[in-house]
Specification:
Elements (H helix, E strand, L loop, with lengths): L2 H20 L6 E2 L1 H9 L3 E4 L3 H6 L6 E2 L2 H4 L13 E5 L4 H12 L4 E5 L2 H7 L10
Parallel strand pairs: 1-5, 2-3, 2-4, 4-5
Length: 132
């Protein structure tokens, strides 16, 4: 492959990545419908909010591990190291941080839910209240 072709290809990839980042998305982000579908296919849906936020309304089947505890509790989710882990919070910011934490810890398929529980509710997806 010619250097000029490789340069254009690399530039195109960088531009595409920057456009996604400018729109608040990256290659590891999914929307709430995709998150629900992945959960139904066996993915771990990990809610990284605090317990009081979780109790006020969470996605059915989700597991609570607050982002501040995630590093110390990785062994609890080790079975998903090579499976899909979908991370959600209130708006998508904490879960984006948690997604990167998991990826750096060797979780190969960690995905952030863009818009978090705000988007989940806006899309009319089911919510459970309480700690179950």
């Amino acid at each position: 492959m010619k250097k000029s072709t490789m340069y254009r290809l690399a530039l195109s990839l960088l531009l595409a990545a920057n456009i996604g980042l400018a729109q608040g998305q990256d290659m590891h982000s999914i929307d709430v419908k995709q998150a629900q579908q992945l959960k139904s296919q066996g993915a771990l849906l990990l809610d990284v909010r605090e317990a009081d936020e979780y109790a006020s309304g969470h996605a059915p089947g989700s597991t609570l591990i607050p982002v501040g505890q995630l590093g110390a509790r990785l062994k609890e989710i080790d079975a998903f190291r090579n499976k899909t882990v979908v991370l959600i919070c209130r708006s998508g910011r904490r879960s984006a941080v948690a997604t990167e934490m998991l990826r750096k810890a060797g979780f190969s398929d960690a995905k952030n839910v863009e818009g978090g529980m705000i988007a989940w509710e806006k899309n009319g997806l089911p919510l459970l209240k309480g700690m179950k």
